[in-house]
User: Which sequence fits this backbone?
């Protein structure tokens, strides 16, 4: 009980103190001087603490309408009508003098006649005279006038017989009173509440610990008001990383952890690095204008022409790899054609031809790639590819298998994998990696293989085993992020971004 | 991408034993295909052979052949009997310029039914569209030779020289009309672009059989249910591919119990007999098997595996079946040895060599900046890199410069590579007008523009705040704070930029490099995006800032040495 008393905030204390005498919402409001929204909130809190029980009842309440308010201030029209009869006698004159509208004048006329306060004489003109009763009424308040002075809003049930009679009469007139069905809220003390009231309710609790309280040590010997720590608080949002990018950051860290070095390449590539260096013949269907994004200007890029010659040979006659090559006329101009990167493997090709390559070496890249696609829930013209190579003398398919198993464990959280034959123009052998994801079932996780000599020898200058792989990371990302629509990877919905799951 | 459909019963018939759907799933992998499904009601199996280079598998006959090899029901290269036919085709020198090669054979002895026509048409379409490069490299025609008079003439003629009724049409048309009006003519007219004469096949009665590679004649150029004889022809620009088409079809029809008859082809300078079933030979070495797969195999094991894959093997010499032209290097054969050995039977070896993992330096730098932006309370966003000029310039109230545009683009939305990032942020604001304010967002990413005939790629970061009090001061504070974190400071100069309010736009200069724009967004721009809340923004070039820092590091070291 003591703890409860200490947990009351100032508003609660204020309300609680008047609850012995008052129970209706309106009365509490008047007694405490708090605003209605504050009372509503405070009653809710008190009820949550089991101190009161809030009751809601439907009631008919009477209150003054627009004209009623006006008449309360300026007097009832029939009174003003009566007052003007002393100065004039015809209806238009009385109306003008009293400042009433025609409608009000007509209503007053009717009301006064029924009260027997006036006489109407029909001569040449219609004239109006006060009766004795009328003269009496002029000096004394009428029941309607008294009624208006009541305290509104008033519950219909509390009116006496006479008041109800007046109310009925007034309701027939225009916008003087209104009777509405309203919710009436009242609070009743519970057992706990009544006990609590008998306790000493401390007023001298510290609400907020301020710097000055700390400095002056004035908090010593006082109590802090207890908070209801279980109560809900308004939500906030913070600045944070984009959900998908954050996921990709983590993938990057994983590769570094596995001993891979990051590679990068430009978004705007040439046919050479994107395809030709990878031994994809120039007649390959992936190179159709409507498969890849070729750019308008500048149409052609600069290349190491010595390297171009070797790749040309590789396509035409296999270079000196023991291959027949593709046996067609390699278009040297076309190989310079600018396009947007279609596959991350372009980065691997660049690395193989780079002076900086270290052998043995492990390399990876997460790269944005572009391919024509009609946009829907599962297709988007941009995506991120995770690709890489492992260059080391003596490596073969057996090592590739264990590398793929490691990726399945890292990215699909499974050691159940299937490696099946596949086809890529740049690898021989080629293999597809399927993994049994704990929740998605069997999924195609990526492609892999050993780079063909026709790829390696022109770029690297010698034939060394190069294990190559690519992982479809977007699918794993969508699963982890709980996303069904691929477009949400690039979502512009701020509410979604602020609340997206961190994985 | 070839996906083929066939009847399971038919497959079982061709293989000669029962095959379960489960077995098909496994067997498809040997052909580098993926099982797509089986419909019990129609008995239809679907297999996707994706982007593969083995067109002989794009028909049920080829797939059945592969299975017989895997199951050991047939060893080595399957035999095919070619009867000598007395059919002749005369090739006129006029076709040499546009479509010089033709292959041909006749098949008879069996009634053609609806299912067979469907299978043949399926293989024909997959082959021509994919391997045949949309009919440009190879196109195929099937005829009933009953209606033909030999010798057949293959020649090129002027667009108005001949006319015939094309398939599914009623009226005669000349070649020019077909290209302009017939649906197939419109689809494939591009192949003949630039040629004055077009290739046609005409029989000895002067009846046009086909306007290759466009459309056959409605009279001579079709195969019907009940026909018992068939003429196959393939034309194209690549002799090997044209011959391969004939070999694949000849094998398939032979396996369907047709008798195959050869056709003599008379070129202006030589005579050949088609189909050409010469076997190619390639030599492999045992150490190549261990180099690629880490397998040490005895010669007999190698022989056994190669025979399963339907090669023949004697003393390192591999004979290749005539329906395969994908073998260009010994490794292509070695792969098949590995496939037949079974990828699952090859034990994995762990990597043993230690290598040092690391990230790209610029990415590390970019990540530090992102971390600061997050700490300052901004929400990161990520947008597509593909954009368009309206978004990049028109809405931003500036003139475009050096934009990289997509050639022959199909979607206006994705018609250019973004040259700056702020438009992406404005787009985000425009989509979130009813979301709680203040809104603070940033994006880090790659942008591209051209400079002369060079392409310049930069990492940039754009940061923007949108709320009642968004102003220049906020952005200036953010920029200075970021720079301070790296021990840098900037000079500020007044700048003019259509996206910003005049007099409230600045450029920041670090070590002589203009690295950033910042300021309050012009109300014109706000209204272009339909925004009612002020926006202040900055865009900082991280690539340049990184270069400045790297240079600074080096000269700093130099100074210390002195």
Assistant:
């Amino acid at each position: 009980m003591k703890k409860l008393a200490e947990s009351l905030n100032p508003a609660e204390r204020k309300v609680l103190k008047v609850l012995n005498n008052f129970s209706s919402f309106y009365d509490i409001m008047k007694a405490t001087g708090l605003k209605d929204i504050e009372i509503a909130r405070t009653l809710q809190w008190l009820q949550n603490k089991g101190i009161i029980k809030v009751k809601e009842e439907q009631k008919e309440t009477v209150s003054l309408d627009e004209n009623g308010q006006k008449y309360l201030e300026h007097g009832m029209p029939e009174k003003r009508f009566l007052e003007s009869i002393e100065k004039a006698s015809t209806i238009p004159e009385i109306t003008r003098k009293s400042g009433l509208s025609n409608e009000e004048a007509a209503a007053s006329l009717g009301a006064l006649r029924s009260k027997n306060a006036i006489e109407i004489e029909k001569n040449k003109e219609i004239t109006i005279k006060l009766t004795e009763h009328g003269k009496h009424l002029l000096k004394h308040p009428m029941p309607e006038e008294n009624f208006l002075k009541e305290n509104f809003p008033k519950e219909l049930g509390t009116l006496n017989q006479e008041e109800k009679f007046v109310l009925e009469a007034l309701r027939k007139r225009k916008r003087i009173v209104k009777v509405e069905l309203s919710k009436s809220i009242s609070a009743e003390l519970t057992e706990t509440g009544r006990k609590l009231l008998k306790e000493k309710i401390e007023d001298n609790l510290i609400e907020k610990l301020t710097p000055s309280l700390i400095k002056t040590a004035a908090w010593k010997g006082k109590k802090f008001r207890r908070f209801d720590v279980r109560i809900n608080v308004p939500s906030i949002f913070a600045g944070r990383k984009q959900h998908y990018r954050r996921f990709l950051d983590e993938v990057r860290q994983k590769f570094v952890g596995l001993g891979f070095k990051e590679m990068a390449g430009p978004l705007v590539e040439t046919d050479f690095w994107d395809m030709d260096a990878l031994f994809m013949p120039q007649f390959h269907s992936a190179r159709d204008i409507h498969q890849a994004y070729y750019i308008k200007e500048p149409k052609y890029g600069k290349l190491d022409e010595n390297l171009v010659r070797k790749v040309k040979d590789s396509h035409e006659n296999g270079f000196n790899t023991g291959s027949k090559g593709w046996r067609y006329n390699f278009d040297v101009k076309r190989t310079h054609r600018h396009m947007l990167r279609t596959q991350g493997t372009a980065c691997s090709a660049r690395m193989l031809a780079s002076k900086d390559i270290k052998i043995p070496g492990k390399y990876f890249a997460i790269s944005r790639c572009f391919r024509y696609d009609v946009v829907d829930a599962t297709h988007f013209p941009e995506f991120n590819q995770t690709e890489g190579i492992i260059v080391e003398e003596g490596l073969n398919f057996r090592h590739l298998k264990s590398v793929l198993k490691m990726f399945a464990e890292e990215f699909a959280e499974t050691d159940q994998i299937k490696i099946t034959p596949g086809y890529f123009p740049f690898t021989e052998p080629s293999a597809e990696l399927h993994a049994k994801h704990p929740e998605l079932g069997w999924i195609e996780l990526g492609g892999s293989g050993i780079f063909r000599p026709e790829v390696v020898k022109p770029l690297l200058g010698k034939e060394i085993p190069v294990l190559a792989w690519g992982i479809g990371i977007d699918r794993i990302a969508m699963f982890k992020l709980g996303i069904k629509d691929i477009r949400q990877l690039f979502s512009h919905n701020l509410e979604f971004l602020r609340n997206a799951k961190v994985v | 991408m070839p996906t083929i459909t066939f009847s399971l019963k038919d497959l079982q018939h061709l293989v000669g034993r029962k095959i379960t759907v489960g077995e098909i799933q496994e067997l498809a992998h040997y052909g580098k295909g993926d099982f797509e499904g089986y419909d019990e009601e129609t008995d239809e199996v679907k297999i996707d052979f994706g982007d593969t280079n083995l067109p002989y598998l794009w028909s049920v006959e080829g797939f059945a052949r592969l299975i017989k090899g895997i199951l050991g029901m047939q060893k080595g290269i399957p035999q095919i009997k070619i009867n000598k036919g007395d059919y002749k085709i005369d090739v006129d020198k006029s076709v040499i310029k546009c479509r010089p090669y033709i292959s041909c054979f006749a098949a008879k002895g069996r009634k053609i039914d609806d299912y067979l026509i469907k299978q043949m048409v399926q293989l024909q379409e997959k082959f021509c569209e994919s391997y045949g490069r949309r009919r440009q490299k190879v196109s195929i025609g099937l005829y009933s030779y009953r209606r033909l008079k030999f010798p057949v003439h293959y020649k090129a003629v002027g667009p108005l020289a001949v006319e015939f009724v094309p398939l599914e049409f009623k009226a005669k048309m000349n070649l020019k009309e077909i290209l302009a009006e017939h649906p197939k003519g419109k689809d494939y007219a591009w192949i003949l672009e630039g040629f004055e004469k077009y290739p046609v096949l005409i029989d000895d009665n002067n009846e046009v059989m086909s306007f290759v590679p466009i459309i056959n004649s409605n009279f001579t150029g079709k195969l019907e249910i009940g026909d018992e004889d068939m003429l196959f022809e393939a034309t194209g620009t690549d002799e090997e591919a044209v011959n391969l088409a004939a070999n694949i079809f000849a094998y398939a029809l032979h396996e369907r119990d047709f008798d195959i008859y050869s056709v003599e082809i008379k070129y202006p300078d030589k005579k050949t007999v088609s189909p050409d079933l010469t076997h190619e030979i390639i030599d492999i070495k045992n150490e190549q098997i261990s180099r690629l797969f880490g397998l040490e195999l005895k010669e007999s094991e190698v022989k056994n595996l190669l025979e399963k894959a339907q090669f023949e093997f004697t003393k390192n010499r591999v004979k290749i079946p005539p329906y395969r032209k994908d073998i260009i290097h010994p490794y292509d054969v070695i792969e098949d040895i590995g496939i037949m050995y079974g990828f699952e039977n090859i034990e994995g070896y762990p990597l043993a060599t230690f290598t040092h993992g690391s990230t790209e330096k610029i990415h590390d730098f970019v990540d530090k900046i992102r971390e600061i932006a997050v700490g300052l309370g901004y929400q990161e966003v990520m947008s597509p890199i593909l954009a368009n000029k309206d978004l990049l310039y028109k809405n931003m109230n500036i003139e475009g410069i050096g934009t990289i545009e997509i050639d022959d683009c199909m979607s206006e939305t994705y018609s250019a590579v973004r040259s700056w990032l702020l438009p992406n942020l404005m787009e985000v604001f425009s989509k979130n007008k009813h979301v709680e304010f203040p809104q603070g967002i940033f994006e880090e990413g790659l942008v591209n523009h051209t400079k002369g005939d060079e392409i310049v790629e930069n990492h940039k970061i754009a940061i923007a705040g949108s709320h009642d009090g968004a102003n220049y001061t906020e952005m200036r504070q953010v920029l200075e704070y970021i720079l301070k974190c790296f021990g840098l400071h900037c000079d500020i100069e007044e700048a003019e930029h259509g996206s910003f309010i005049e007099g409230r736009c600045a450029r920041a200069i670090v070590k002589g490099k203009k690295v950033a724009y910042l300021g309050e967004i012009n109300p014109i721009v706000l209204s272009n995006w339909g925004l009612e809340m002020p926006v202040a923004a900055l865009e900082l070039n991280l690539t340049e800032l990184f270069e400045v820092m790297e240079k600074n590091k080096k000269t700093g070291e130099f100074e210390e040495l002195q």
Summary: DSSP finds 22 helices and 14 strands in chain A. The mean pLDDT of chain A is 88. Chain A touches chain B through 91 residues (CB under 8 Å). Residues 243-257 of chain A form the longest helix (15 residues).
